Backbone:
């Protein structure tokens, strides 16, 4: 491929393979010659293609395709506005779904953007169209989506990726990569798909592109869904769609739109929104108080997390007993934010404690969201790299074989499950001081132990 280094060419092929089942004849590479001056028209074949195509740029991104998709969708939306006089919701939605939405949906599992600017550009097409619907002119975009009962473009693309992963796990479509997507079953967490491991020696830009691919991002979306949805199997895709849509109706859909970002409690991705709902249900508070810089967001510089009223109350109460001064330092708040924090604490009657009674540990500087993510990452790494099968063979062999060990394993499993349930329902001082990390990591360790003692070798028929 002219103008592309050999290593980058291999990365592009890997990125392309992560997109799912796509007709290769519809993939058009925009490759410029080294001698081509900046600003000159590209010599790629895309100018000659007819019909639907997906354009892969020479830098491995789909920026040109996103621009072309937005141009076609805006042109079609403009033609509809000029041709049809009706602005009634039913007529406008029918025209949108029939003529504009297919342009934005075509093969979106492959090219779904990860850059905020590209997401906003695509969202602007639907935002502009819905503004012309009768009765919605004075509503903001988020309220328009709720009133019309439709998803944002970002949520639609994430939904399509979740459906694609389900189809792969059900063997209804070919795998996008060789043996990359596999189902893993756990009695407590249910079925989950394995995520594609990023190459450690690849350049940062290539890792970013691969992280946004279907093979890596798709399982992350699928795994964030509730257990009862992930466990839907042996049925038609419409049955899974029904269960998925039922859950998505309860998940806030707040796409990044210029002027609205400051109101977002988290990003609009399904995993982040589901995690936020779970945290609010666990803490009993959903009031946003502050944004704080993420401490453990490796590779995601600039990411910010939310701290709610309920979390602040727990931080200044026993057993941590943090003072307002310690909160300012440990939550990475500026002087201006510190004044707001003091006003919030005083307004809500939270007692101003002294730092003499405070209990400081390594967990003190972590928010509850970061503590939960730390436990989740540990379980993911342990299940992948602990060599559970080898350990299980050694343990079972030392106990006289699987037949003799099965009864003992079931008894141990019951005891461990009972212990974890007791810890999870109690707000022990350790749970409060570790910001919820203690019961989560205990559950992760117990799940690993249960997998070890209950693992059974598959029966292989003699050939």
Residues:
């Amino acid at each position: 491929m002219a103008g592309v280094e050999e290593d980058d060419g291999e990365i592009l092929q890997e990125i392309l393979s992560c997109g799912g089942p796509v007709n290769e004849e519809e993939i058009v590479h925009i490759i410029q010659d080294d001698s081509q001056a900046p600003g000159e028209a590209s010599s790629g074949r895309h100018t000659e293609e007819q019909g639907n195509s997906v354009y892969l740029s020479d830098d491995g991104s789909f920026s040109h395709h996103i621009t072309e998709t937005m141009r076609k969708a805006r042109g079609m939306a403009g033609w509809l506005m000029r041709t049809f006089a009706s602005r009634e919701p039913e007529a406008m939605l029918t025209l949108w779904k029939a003529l504009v939405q297919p342009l934005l949906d075509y093969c979106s599992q492959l090219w779904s953007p990860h850059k905020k600017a590209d997401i906003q550009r695509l969202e602007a097409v639907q935002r502009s169209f819905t503004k012309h619907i009768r009765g919605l002119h004075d509503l903001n975009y988020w309220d328009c989506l709720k009133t019309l009962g439709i998803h944002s473009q970002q949520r639609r693309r994430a939904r399509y990726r979740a459906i694609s992963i389900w189809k792969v796990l059900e063997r209804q479509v070919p795998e996008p990569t060789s043996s990359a997507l596999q189902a893993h079953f756990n009695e407590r967490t249910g079925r989950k798909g394995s995520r594609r491991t990023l190459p450690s020696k690849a350049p940062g830009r290539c890792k970013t592109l691969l992280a946004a691919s279907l093979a890596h991002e798709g399982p992350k979306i699928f795994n964030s869904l509730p257990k009862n949805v992930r466990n839907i199997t042996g049925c038609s895709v419409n049955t899974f769609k029904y269960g998925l849509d039922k859950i998505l109706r309860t998940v806030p859909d707040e796409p990044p739109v210029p002027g609205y970002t400051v109101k977002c409690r988290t990003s609009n991705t399904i995993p982040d929104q589901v995690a936020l709902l779970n945290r609010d249900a666990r803490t009993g508070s959903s009031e946003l108080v502050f944004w704080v810089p993420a401490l453990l967001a490796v590779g995601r510089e600039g990411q910010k997390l939310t701290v709610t009223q309920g979390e602040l109350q727990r931080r200044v109460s026993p057993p941590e007993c943090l003072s307002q001064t310690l909160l300012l330092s440990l939550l990475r708040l500026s002087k201006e934010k510190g004044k707001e924090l003091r006003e919030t604490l005083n307004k809500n009657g939270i007692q101003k404690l002294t730092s003499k009674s405070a209990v400081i540990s390594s967990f003190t500087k972590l928010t509850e969201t970061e503590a939960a993510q730390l436990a989740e990452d540990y379980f993911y790494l342990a299940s992948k790299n602990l060599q559970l099968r080898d350990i299980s063979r050694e343990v079972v062999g030392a106990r006289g074989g699987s037949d003799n060990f099965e009864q003992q394993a079931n008894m141990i499993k019951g005891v461990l499950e009972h212990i974890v349930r007791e810890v999870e329902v109690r707000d022990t001082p350790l749970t409060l001081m570790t910001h919820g990390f203690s019961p989560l990591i205990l559950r992760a360790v117990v799940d690993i132990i249960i997998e070890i003692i209950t693992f059974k070798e598959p029966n292989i028929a003699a050939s």
In short: Residues 368-454 form one domain. The chain has three domains: 1-28+51-259, 284-357, 368-454.
